[in-house]
Every structure is written in structure tokens, then in C-alpha cells.
């Protein structure tokens, strides 16, 4: 208090004013000091607000009492959900009514199920096209290989006016060999050649490889045009791959004695 009075007297000596001015100076100083005390009181810690100030430390019983009070508040609640989110969460917390309900389809839903009963779910990608694209691809540029094949199939469509996918499937089925041979060691001086059948993927791989080799020999500067010309040649039975197919079959027939059934 003495410090406040000294500051007031110093202000009066430096700035001599009327009694009205002195009252204003005192009021200003009191407002200034009261704001400081308000700031000090507002900075009380949360622990001091919850627990009595005369306690120097917090005991286990105080913590248990606080937790029990919080649990009791949660248990009592506010008397029900107050917004849409709380209603939704409360319904999810009690799923028994939803589990007891039975789904009964309508007549339109049953008719739709019958309409699609015998239809297969299509694959996201055609395995034949993926295999062809991967064999065209160089240096990991799959998008470029896919673009080349798409342009080639479009040219095939312009030439034949048929579904290019069906044309390509028929071409691979006609060009793909049925048998191949492999050499086995017998432990003696002479090895033997054993014929074995090929699955559909192996047949397509041989056919695609021969088509790509034939396309490399064409004269056009655009690879998609060369590929389309070779696919059309194989579709018409004029590709050089048929000679290689006949040679593989001839070798398999010549060594049919070692075939395993």
C-alpha cells in the first residue's frame, strides 16, 4: 500500500493538477493495479481450481473421488441424444433391433435377380489382351504397348467389319500349336525327345510370338499397321507362323513313341 501512495504522490508532484485531476489520476492508478490483480487471479492452475488450495499435494483418495464423479456424470448423461450424430451413435451402440429385423426383397428385386442369374461377372481385364500387351511391351512402357495393340485392333475392325477381339481369338486358336517337344537326359550317350501337350496360355504365347516376329518383317513405318497386317494374314491362313506350327507337330509325331499319357 505504501508503494501505491508513493507513486500517487510522485505523479502529483510531477503534474500539479486540480483536485478533479488528482481524482482522475488516483482512479487511473487503481484501475491499472486492479487489472494486474485480475490477471494474477485468472492464471490459477486447473488443479488449484478442482482441489482445495490449502492442500500441498494430491492423494490417491482425491483422484478416486474425482474419477467416480466423472463416471457418475457420464452415467447420468443429459437424458438422451441431442443431435443427429448422437442418435446415430446410440443406434450403433444397440444393434439388437437391426439384427432381429429380416430382409424381405420386393418383386422388382426378385425379377432383377432372375434376369442376371445365368450371366457371369466379366473380368476387369481380358487375359488374352494382357498377355499380348506384355509381349509387345519394351522397357516397361506398357501404356505404349497397349496403345499400339488398340490401334492395330481398330485397323482389323476397319478391314473385316467384325469384332476385333473375336478375330484375334480365332487367329490365336488357329495359329497356336497343340504339341511341343523337350529333350530329356537318359544318363546314356543319347538323349531322347519327348512330346508334351500345351495349355491355352502356352498356345497363345507361341502364336503371339510368331505374329510379332512376322510384324517385324513388314515394310510399314508404323508398328501398329504392321501388327494389324500380320494379324489379318494369320487370320486368313497366310502367316509364316503356320509353317513353324506344322514343323512342331511333325517333330512331335516323329517322337510319339516317348509320349507320356
Give an overview in words.
This protein has helices at residues 2-14, 19-42, 46-50, 60-76, 84-93, 96-100, 107-115, 127-136, 142-160, 164-175, 200-216, 223-235, 241-254; strands at 179-184, 192-197. It has 13 helices and 2 strands; from the N terminus they run H-H-H-H-H-H-H-H-H-H-E-E-H-H-H. It has a domain at 127-258: Orthogonal Bundle (Ribosomal Protein S7). A hairpin with a 7-residue loop joins strand 1 (179-184) and strand 2 (192-197). The chain is mainly alpha-helical. The model is unreliable at 8-42 and 44-49 (pLDDT under 50). The termini are far apart. The protein has a two-stranded antiparallel ribbon with strand order 1-2. One of its GO terms (biological process) is translation. Belongs to the universal ribosomal protein uS7 family. GO terms for molecular function: RNA binding; structural constituent of ribosome. InterPro entries: Ribosomal_uS7, Ribosomal_uS7_CS, Ribosomal_uS7_dom, Ribosomal_uS7_dom_sf, Ribosomal_uS7m_fungi. Keywords: Mitochondrion, Ribonucleoprotein, Ribosomal protein.
Helical run tally: 13
Largest sheet: 2 strands, antiparallel
Structural class: mainly alpha
Q: What Rg do the Cα atoms give?
A: 46 Å
> What is the CATH superfamily classification of the domain at 127-258?
Ribosomal protein S7/S5
CATH architecture of the domain at 127-258: Orthogonal Bundle
How many β strands by DSSP? 2
Pfam families: Ribosomal_S7
GO molecular function: RNA binding; structural constituent of ribosome
Subcellular location: Mitochondrion
Family: Belongs to the universal ribosomal protein uS7 family.
Amino acid at each position: 500500500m505504501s508503494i501505491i501512495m508513493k507513486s500517487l504522490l510522485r505523479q502529483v508532484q510531477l503534474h500539479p493538477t486540480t483536485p478533479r485531476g488528482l481524482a482522475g489520476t488516483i482512479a487511473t492508478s487503481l484501475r491499472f493495479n486492479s487489472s494486474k490483480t485480475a490477471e494474477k487471479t485468472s492464471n490459477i492452475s486447473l488443479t488449484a481450481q478442482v482441489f482445495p488450495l490449502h492442500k500441498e499435494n494430491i492423494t490417491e483418495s482425491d483422484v478416486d473421488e474425482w474419477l467416480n464423479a466423472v463416471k457418475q456424470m457420464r452415467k447420468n448423461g443429459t437424458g438422451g441424444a441431442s443431435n443427429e450424430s448422437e442418435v446415430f451413435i446410440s443406434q450403433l451402440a444397440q444393434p439388437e433391433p437391426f439384427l432381429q429385423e429380416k430382409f424381405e426383397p420386393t418383386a422388382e428385386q426378385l425379377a432383377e435377380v432372375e434376369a442376371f442369374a445365368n450371366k457371369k461377372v466379366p473380368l476387369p481385364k481380358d487375359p488374352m489382351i494382357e498377355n499380348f500387351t506384355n509381349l509387345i511391351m519394351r522397357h516397361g512402357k506398357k501404356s505404349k504397348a497397349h496403345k499400339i495393340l488398340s490401334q492395330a485392333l481398330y485397323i482389323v475392325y476397319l478391314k473385316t467389319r467384325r469384332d476385333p477381339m473375336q478375330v484375334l481369338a480365332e487367329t490365336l486358336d488357329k495359329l497356336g500349336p497343340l504339341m511341343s517337344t523337350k529333350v530329356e537326359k537318359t544318363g546314356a550317350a543319347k538323349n531322347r525327345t519327348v512330346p508334351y501337350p500345351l495349355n491355352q496360355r502356352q498356345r497363345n504365347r507361341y502364336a503371339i510370338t510368331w505374329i510379332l516376329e512376322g510384324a517385324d518383317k513388314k515394310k510399314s513405318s508404323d508398328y501398329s499397321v504392321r501388327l494389324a497386317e500380320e494379324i489379318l494374314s494369320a487370320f486368313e491362313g497366310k502367316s509364316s507362323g503356320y509353317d513353324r506350327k506344322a514343323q512342331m507337330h511333325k517333330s512331335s509325331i516323329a517322337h510319339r513313341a516317348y509320349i507320356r499319357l
